[in-house]
Amino acid sequence: MSGVLLVGVVTLLILYRWLDQQEGQLRSAGVSVLTPVPTVQQTGRATATPTATPTPTALIPSPTLPTPRPDPVAQRVDQLLSRMTLEEKVGQLFLVFFVGPDLSPSLQELVAQYHVGGILLFSSTDNVQSMPQVAQLINQVQGEAVSHGAGIPLFVALDQEGGSVVRLARGATVFPSNMALGATRSIDNARLMAQVTATELKALGINMNLAPVVDVNNNPDNPVIGTRSFGSSPQQVADLGAAMIETYKANGIIATAKHFPGHGDTATDSHLALPVIPHRIERLEATELLPFRAAIRAGVDAIMTAHVLVPAVDPSPALPATLSSDVLQGLLRDRLRYQGLITTDSLGMRAIGQAYGVPEAAGMAFLAGADLLALGADPGHMPAEQRSACQHVLSLVESDPLLESRLNESIRRILLVKARYGLLDWEPAHVGEPALQIGTDDHDRIARHIAQESITLVRNHAGTLPLAADQLLLAVVPPGAAGFGGNLQAYHPHTHVLQLSLNPSPEEIERVVRAAEGASVVVVGTVNARRHPGQLDLVRALADQPLVVAALDTPYDLMSFPGISAYLASYGRVPVSLDALARVIVGLEKPRGHLPVALPGLYPLGHGMHDFVSETAVSSD
């Protein structure tokens, strides 16, 4: 009983101290209070004896949370959305291609009557002739968009990845490939490349880059990704991709991470057929999805889908990721918590178009959760299909009133991105300005710096490289690499150049063998030799003499002839990469790159020789 009494006393003392503190606060505020004095009766219960006449007490107001300020961007978007017709909303879903260098009647119809949300620029459709012409074209098309319907400016998008996939190849700065960037292992280089690219795109009025590729290229037989990937390390792909996305955003360009949920481990080109990603979800999380998670953390505003089957996510036997709600909603929206734009890869590609037809595929992609439906300049895809696709999606929404709320979700996301990047306040680009900001000497120096840091010396048996000044060199170059021969001749006067076809015939090979008899060293440039038997036959025919093989695309060619004297990789045939490669071969520069992919059975990821010494002096750290 005494223990209970003691607890009661302690409790009362604590209560008394608290009441005393409250009284002091009230008195300091000028408020009269009633002061209770706790006493302990014989019963052991606490009572309070009043010591003053009660007076009215003031109430202390409860703290109130500040009223959140309305988001002016969201308010503007909601007001715009409320004024749009159903036809205008459906049109905003579409990114369309067109033919020609100016505002044709066909393009004018798509913009003014179908209210498309954006255009796609391609050099193959003659959209790009010069930089001033591109700026003028964009001004014309945007002017058409803002003067019709809801007056919403367009996404102006293109693939300016670097390397082999660029739409602005004449006049703009063309950077080495992503795989070359991966060979430098430099976040700073990734940021520099994105900053220059963003500056040049913005000067033309382009606001969206369908880049970077964040596929992990871990399949040597991949026919479509290859050097478009940063490499085979998921973490390096994630780091470089995120750095580029952040830099694009900071410089006012909408970046697009692609191709979700991963296109790096395939042996089929989705432009031609439907590839399968056979892995379990645990493997997808560790490899394919890791760069996309990094892209989402970096704030990427658009993610492009891949036309691939992913049985671990959607077991449907013929439903590619682009058309799968399990992939777009279940995996990307729900599991990865992505809230930005989902854009399809081109629905005119054969993996989709042949199986479903473009209009039907557009409707399926929309129902699966895509926000933007891309209709690119694919072989066999006709401009008329774009109108049919718009009409088909419109009929779907008109036939089911519940679909308008689904449509509004996509349109709101589209308008929010356009608003945040200033597209809703579009102003014409100054046609005279591009020349001042595009293809400048400073930009060219940055591209050359990245290229030089990427060149990778993989093998150098018996000190074959660098060339001695008096050696007679025979350079054998494939199509698209004529500049490589010219570079070697410029740096090494004793050079004879032969150009061959991509898959050399026996007669061509015999001609090279005869020419090689008078040479001290032969340099052969290969391009995906594993897919061109004539290149393999050529290298084998020259194997008995000092031979340097330079892989001018992916470095996997070495797997077909591991015993050659010297082997280098340039990761592409863009001019700055070919020049950097030639400078290493003749000894004007040392090799600095690291393999961004493993060569199974031969060399690990990160391998690279950084001096012209025996092959045992290797750096792979």
How are the secondary structure elements laid out?
Layout (H helix, E strand, L loop, with lengths): L1 H27 L7 E5 L5 E5 L21 H12 L2 H7 L1 E3 L8 H8 L5 E3 L10 H16 L8 E4 L19 H7 L2 H18 L3 E2 L24 H17 L3 E7 L20 H6 L3 H8 L4 E4 L19 H11 L5 E3 L6 H7 L1 H11 L4 E3 L8 H16 L3 H18 L13 H4 L3 H14 L1 E5 L12 E5 L4 H10 L3 E5 L6 H11 L4 E6 L6 H9 L5 E5 L14 E4 L5 H11 L36
Parallel strand pairs: 3-4, 3-10, 4-5, 5-6, 6-7, 7-8, 8-9, 12-13, 12-14, 14-15, 15-16
Antiparallel strand pairs: 1-2, 11-16
Helix pairs in contact: 2-15, 3-14, 3-15, 6-17, 7-8, 7-17, 8-10, 12-13, 13-14, 17-21, 18-21, 19-20
- What share of residues are in beta strands? 5-15%
Helical content band: 25-40%
Oligomer: single chain
Mean pLDDT: 90
Which regions have little confidence, pLDDT < 50, spanning 5+ residues?
Answer: 1-16, 23-54, 616-621
The name CATH uses for the topology of the largest domain is TIM Barrel
Explain what you see.
By secondary structure, the protein is α/β, with parallel strands linked by helices. It has 3 domains: 2-50, no CATH class; 88-438, Glycoside hydrolase, family 3, N-terminal domain (TIM Barrel); 455-585, Glycoside hydrolase family 3 C-terminal domain (Rossmann fold, 3-Layer(aba) Sandwich), CATH 3.40.50.1700. It is built from 21 helices and 16 strands. The protein has helices spanning 2-28, 72-83, 86-92, 105-112, 131-146, 178-184, 187-204, 234-250, 281-286, 290-297, 325-335, 350-356, 358-368, 384-399, 403-420, 434-437, 441-454, 482-491, 506-516, 533-541, 575-585, and strands at residues 36-40, 46-50, 94-96, 118-120, 155-158, 208-209, 254-260, 302-305, 341-343, 373-375, 456-460, 473-477, 495-499, 521-526, 547-551, 566-569. Strands 9-8-7-6-5-4-3-10 form an 8-stranded parallel sheet. Strands 11-16-15-14-12-13 form a 6-stranded mixed sheet, sandwiched between helices. Helix 2 packs across helix 15, helix 6 (178-184) packs across helix 17 and helix 8 packs parallel to helix 10 (290-297). The model is unreliable at 1-16, 23-54 and 616-621 (pLDDT under 50).
